[in-house]
Design a protein that fits this description.
Helices cover 19% and strands 36% of the residues. The chain is an alpha+beta fold and 148 residues long.
Length: 148
C-alpha cells in the first residue's frame, strides 16, 4: 500500500504534463516536484484537491503566483473525463485540483490517459500530446517570468 503522503499515479502524471515546457518558471517548479509531498488530499465527490508540501525545498528563486491548466484525463468509469488546475503560490507548488466535467468521481481510478487541451474559436477539446503554448504563456503571464 502506498504512503498517503505520496502522489498517486494520476497526480504525478498530471503534474508532469502541467509542468512540461522550456520556461525558467516551469524548470524551477519541476525541481520542487522531485521532493514535494502530499500535505492533504480532499475528495469533493466531483474530484479532489491535493495540497502539496514543498517545505523541504530551498526558498524559491522565482517568486510568482499563477494557475496552470490545459490537461485533460480520460478515466475509466468517467464518461466525460476530467480536468486539472495547478495553483502556484509564492513560487511554490501549492494545490492540484482535479475535477470531472460531468458526473461523480469514481471510487477507484483503474486506468487513465492524459492529453493537452486545445481551444479553437468555439470550443476547448482534447488535442493529444502537443501543448498549446499560447495558452501556457497566458497562464504564466503576468506573474511569472517566461522565456524570451
Amino acid at each position: 500500500m502506498s504512503d498517503p503522503a505520496d502522489l498517486t499515479d494520476l497526480e504525478a502524471a498530471a503534474l508532469r504534463m502541467l509542468l512540461y515546457g522550456d520556461y525558467p518558471a516551469l524548470a524551477h517548479l519541476r525541481e520542487q516536484l522531485e521532493t514535494c509531498r502530499v500535505a492533504k488530499r480532499t475528495m469533493t465527490g466531483a474530484g479532489f484537491y491535493t495540497d502539496l508540501d514543498c517545505a523541504a525545498n530551498p526558498p524559491p528563486r522565482l517568486v510568482f503566483h499563477a494557475t496552470l491548466g490545459g490537461v485533460y484525463a480520460e478515466i475509466a468509469g468517467l464518461e466525460h473525463g476530467a480536468g486539472f488546475v495547478l495553483w502556484i503560490e509564492g513560487g511554490r507548488l501549492a494545490t492540484l485540483e482535479c475535477f470531472t466535467y460531468v458526473g461523480v468521481w469514481p471510487e477507484e481510478v483503474t486506468g487513465f490517459e492524459l492529453e493537452y487541451l486545445h481551444q479553437d474559436d468555439l470550443h476547448t477539446r482534447p488535442g493529444g500530446q502537443t501543448r498549446d503554448w499560447a495558452a501556457l504563456e497566458h497562464d504564466l503571464m503576468p506573474g511569472a517570468p517566461k522565456q524570451a
